[in-house]
Amino acid sequence: MDQDSLAVPGRVNLIGEHIDYHGLAVLPMAIGRSVRVSFRARSDREIQVASAGYGCRQFEWTANLACAAPGDWENYVRAAAQAVSRQWGVGLGIDAEIESDLPSAAGLSSSTALLVAVALCLLRANRLSPTFEELMEILPEGEQFVGTRGGGMDHAAVLASLRGCASLIEFDPPRMRAIPIPGGWAFLVAHSLERAEKSGPRREEYNARRAAGSAALKQLGFRSYREVLARLPEELPENFAQRLAGRERDSFLHVTTEALRVWDAVQAMERCEPQLFGRVLNESHASLRDRLQVSCPALDRLVDTAMESGALGARLTGAGFGGCAVVFCRAGDVEAVEQGLRERYYRGQPGFDPRRHLIRAAAASGALANSPTTHRGDAESAEATRRKP
Ligand code: GLA
Questions:
Q1: Could you tell me if the CB of 20 is within 6 A of ligand 1?
Q2: Ligand 1 center to residue 187 CA distance, Å?
């Protein structure tokens, strides 16, 4: 096989945090930073991946792969191989070279982009071209190989987002609706300069949030959060929460109110109401900080500084515990907001690198939009665009 190449972008979640794993809709967008791979199929089952700056990893692709050392990036390569072989069997291996301009441990899905990129290379090397739905069946589940019990938001966003649009992603079954971002709206991704390691010590904290939300559901006798949401037009989340305490109560309130905020944000975007959009972003941050407790002092300060600098809304994005905030402002204010952040947040911080830590985020296409083999994901997105929530 000849040399081939592909790119998988990162994503920034605009709103809908810590709810995808409960099957609730979220609103991310893909960004113009990506993991790029050039690769070639081998004639045996070896998988060899070299990454600029991170060395080389090689292993034999077998049906039941064991984990590599905890925290090692090889686990995402193994997770990809395992996910593919669970569905389609072990195939030919690859020689691959990876390059990335996506900051790691920032909450921008660099690990999911790596996993998805390797999976797409293996599929292409073996002449398989699954649809978006088929990929969504194996990839989120596949990532649990590394021990994070995440949801499907990142995989869907990096696969099927459309340029210039936010992606309203629903689950069970996975669906995507492209929401055009109004002209004159701008997003910055600002790093708190605290690393948010997804597979490191924060993993247990992340999994604990999911467990508390599920425990709350069980205590209330619901089978899913979708069932709860169906009751919300008549009832308030607080009415249910009265029967809960502690972490379960806080998680329940975060999940239900965040789900409602996603739909408010979609409406604000569709009606071009920037003030409302900004307000729900701020409410989301407050809920993540106070109820779910996944923020940290640096992220809170970053969000406050963004607001003082002229943003209309700002919130932590991704799993939290460090990483980035997404900052929303009018396009005409973006330079002033950037300037404010540089002067009031980043000044004197020796690790600050504007190319990695303060990014103007334009909504980019997902990997399927650029792939000659998987057009159905695109067609589905376009079809879903015509559907109403
Ligand atoms: C991580 C996970 C996602 C999602 C977010 C929090 O990024 O990979 O599935 O749960 O955290 O919203």
A1: yes
A2: 19
